[in-house]
């Protein structure tokens, strides 16, 4: 007598088939997130590096933009001077910063050669500051901003002393404001570099 083994009814109990052909569970990784040598999460380190690089680019292009605007401001009307008092020989002349630099201001405006020299110094400081900022030189743009600001102030004093009345226009006002802005920014960055260097020196000092 042949006996047949009773096969399980997979249709009646589908769980039997799933249990029979179920694969081994995938091994779960116990490794933690990627970290750098200091133990900080790798993603955080990468994000910090990206922020540092983007911040440096923003600072560099910010400085170059300021110095470029200073150079363009020399093309705007600079000042209007009146010479000769109230008599018949009174002359009123309006000139730009570019005319000062190229020594092309009319002679009857009462502008001497020193004013043109000071305007040239301010323009050279702006151009040099633009180049140094574009090449990410840390300390150079600050000296250029200080030199340009000093030349701009001396220029205004010189023009005012040789004329009966002076009315400064947008060109001079923009140059003065941008040099002030550049000098303030560079002074702040110099202070932060100094503080950072001091902290770094204290960290490396033996306890």
Task: Kindly describe this structure.
The protein is mostly helical. It has a domain at 56-193. The protein is 60% helix and 8% strand. The chain has a 3-stranded antiparallel β-sheet with strand order 2-1-3. Helix 2 packs antiparallel against helix 4, helix 2 (42-73) runs antiparallel to helix 6 (170-204) and helix 4 (113-134) runs antiparallel to helix 5. The relative contact order is 0.12. The model has no long low-confidence stretch (mean pLDDT 77).
Secondary structure elements and their pairing?
Blueprint: H1 14-21, H2 42-73, E1 77-83, E2 91-96, H3 97-101, H4 113-134, H5 140-161, E3 165-168, H6 170-204
Antiparallel strand pairs: 1-2, 1-3
Helix pairs in contact: 2-4, 2-6, 4-5, 5-6
What is the strand tally? 3
Q: State the separation between the terminal residues, measured CA to CA.
A: 94 Å
- The SSE order reads HHEEHHHEH
Using the alpha-carbon principal axes, give the shape: elongated
Strand order of the largest sheet: 2-1-3
Helix content: 55-70%
| Rg over CA atoms | 36 Å
Number of helices: 6
Instruction: Classify the secondary structure makeup into a structural class.
Output: mainly alpha
Q: Tell me what portion of residues adopts beta-strand conformation.
A: 5-15%
For the largest beta-sheet, the strand count, sense and barrel status come to: 3 strands, antiparallel
Model regions low in confidence, pLDDT < 50 over at least 5 residues:
none
Mean pLDDT: 77
């Amino acid at each position: 007598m042949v006996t047949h083994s009773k096969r399980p009814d997979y249709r009646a109990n589908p769980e039997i088939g799933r249990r029979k052909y179920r694969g081994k569970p995938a091994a779960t990784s116990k490794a933690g997130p990627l970290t750098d040598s200091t133990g900080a999460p790798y993603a955080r380190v990468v994000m910090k590096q990206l922020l540092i690089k983007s911040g440096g680019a923003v600072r560099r292009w910010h400085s170059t933009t300021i110095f470029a605007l200073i150079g363009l401001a020399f093309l705007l009307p600079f000042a209007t001077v009146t010479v000769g008092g109230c008599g018949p020989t009174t002359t009123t002349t309006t000139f730009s910063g570019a005319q000062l630099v190229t020594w092309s201001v009319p002679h009857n405006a009462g502008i001497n050669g020193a004013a043109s020299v000071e305007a040239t110094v301010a323009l050279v400081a702006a151009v040099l500051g633009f180049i140094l900022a574009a090449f990410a030189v840390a300390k150079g743009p600050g000296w250029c901003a200080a030199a340009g600001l000093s030349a701009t102030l001396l220029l205004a004093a010189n023009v005012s002393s040789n004329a009966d009345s002076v009315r400064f226009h947008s060109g001079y006002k923009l140059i003065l404001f941008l040099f002030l802005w550049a000098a303030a920014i560079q002074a702040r960055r110099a202070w932060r570099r100094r503080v950072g260097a001091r902290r770094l020196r204290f960290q490396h000092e033996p306890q």
